[in-house]
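sorry for the late reply, my laptop died twice this morning and i had to redo everyting from scratch. anyway the thing you sent over, i finally got around to it. pasting the sequence first so we're on the same page, its 261 residues, then the predicted structure underneath. double check i copied it right bc i was rushing
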Amino acid sequence: MMRECYLEYEIKVNRPGLLGDVSSLLGTLGISIITINGVDAGRRGMLLRVDNDEKIMRFENIVRELDEIRIIKIRTPLLQDRLAVRHGRYIQRDVTDRKTFRFVRNDLGILVDFMAELFKEEGHCLVGIRGMPRVGKTESVVAASVCAHKKWLFISSTMIKQTVRNSLFKGEYDSSYIYIIDGALTSKQQDMRHMQLVKEVMSLPAVKVIEHPDLFVANSDYTLEDFDYIIELRETDDQEITYEQVHKNNLFNTDGFGFFE
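ok and here's the structure:
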């Protein structure tokens, strides 16, 4: 039975024809190459297709005798492996919290691609996204929903104008929707109908995206442990994410937005 495999190796001696030799060896062993790309300085990643694990083991044994390359990873492809081959580099993960992924605005393409893959998952998936106002959080979520061929629905939002839903139509209780909640806006609501709707949505077997998850959990019964993924989006790598602007009243009086501005 055919299966996919991810191979990543370090180039120790970058001589002409090295990639061709590696590719030829894989082909000789009956291992098909789906995609190749550089994934880091001095490293190359490949998505492979193979029908027998013994072929992979034989490849490993042969490569151990070579001086030019060193195998880093051979495994069933993870989401980050597929994205690394597709975009030419790995996305950043928090060292201590492995479910937290970090992006800057220049990474919007890979961020949208990453979220689109998450949105394709079946059943419950809770995603939190941190970032300063107007950094591109909501717009990225909408773009990812389109890429995943999913409909999106704002439970609370300030994307175009302030939106606070107190109920859903019958057809809107559907796992094909991506439910988007602005945690800052929801946390300020006193209307119990809205809070009841949030609880209903959170219990649905569907994808939910919470902007400002820290503010959301500070004013609800949920915790950060309930999230499957946390995404941080910054203008630059060193930008600090704070909530001073989020707490300002004028944040909730916006009349529009700049798409990816």
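The longest helix spans residues 108-119.
thats about all i looked at so far, will dig more tmrw
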